[in-house]
Amino acid sequence: MAARVPESEGEVRLNRFLAENGGVSRREADDIIFAGRVTVNGTVAETPAVRIDATRDSVKVSGKRIWPQRKEYVLLNKPEGVISSADDPQHRRTVVDLLHGVRAHVYPVGRLDVNTSGVMLLTNDGDLALKLTHPRFGFSKTYQAKVQGQPSPRALQKLATGVHIPTESGRMEVSLPAKVKIVKTFERNALLEITVQEGRYHLVRSMCAAVGHPVIKLSRVKFGFLTAAGLPLGRWRYLTTDEVQRLKGEKAS
Ligand code: URA
Hints:
Helix content is 20%, strand content 29%. The protein has 253 residues and is an alpha+beta fold. It folds into three domains: 11-65, Structural Genomics Hypothetical 15.5 Kd Protein In mrcA-pckA Intergenic Region, Chain A (Roll); 73-135 and 226-247, 2-Layer Sandwich (Alpha-Beta Plaits), CATH 3.30.70; 140-223, 2-Layer Sandwich (Alpha-Beta Plaits). Strands 7, 8, 9, 10, 13, 14, 15 and 16 form an eight-stranded mixed sheet that branches. Strands 3-2-5-6 form a four-stranded antiparallel sheet. Strands 1-4 form a two-stranded antiparallel sheet. Bound molecules: uracil.
C-alpha cells in the first residue's frame, strides 16, 4: 500500500506521530524523514507533512515499526536554570532531563523562561497540548512575580487592562486583560499575583517592565487548576485520571 495523504478524524502528521511515539523530537523526526529513513505502508515518506492514521498505517523507522504509545500526562515543578524545551541544540539541561522514570517521550505544554520556576505540564497528547496553548481557548496561568518597587494602584490597573509589550518579532502589542493583586509588600519590592490567559514569550516580565516594575523573580503557581502542591522543585508526578478528564473538558478557567 502506498503512503496515503487523506483527511479524516484521528489522523496526524507523520512528524508529530514520530515525536509522540518514536522517542524523537519534532526536529529529529523531520531530519529522519528527509533522510529517507521513514516508510509508511512500505513507501518512503518524502515529507513530514504526510498524514497517517496511527491506528491503521504501518510506520517504520529504518525498518523498525513504531507503535502508537499510551498517552502520558506529567506535572513537573520546574526549577530555575533548566530549559523548558524537549531538546536544546546547545545541549543545556532541559526539563526532559528531570523526568527519570517517565514511561513515554513527553513534551512541555507551552514554555517557561529558563529563570522562571513552577508548574509545567508535559505530555505526548498533541491534541490536548494544542488545545491548552491555543490563544482562542484562553487557558489561565497564574504567576507570582517579585518586582522592583511597589506598584501604585494605577500601575496595577494598567497591568490588568493591558499594556504595550514587544512580541518575539519585535512589534509592540497590547497584552490581554489580566487579574492582578499585591500579595505582599517589602521595603523595596512587592510580590504580585498575576493571572493571564495567553502564553506569549516573556509575557509577565514584559508586562511588569512596561509599568516600570521589572521582575526580580518569577514563578508559575497555577496552570489552570493544577498547582505544585506536594511537589518539591525538580520533582514530577503523573496526573490522575480525574485531572486529565478535567483538563480535557475544561473551558477557559
Ligand atoms: N511570563 C514570563 O515573562 N516568563 C515566563 O517564563 C512565563 C510567563
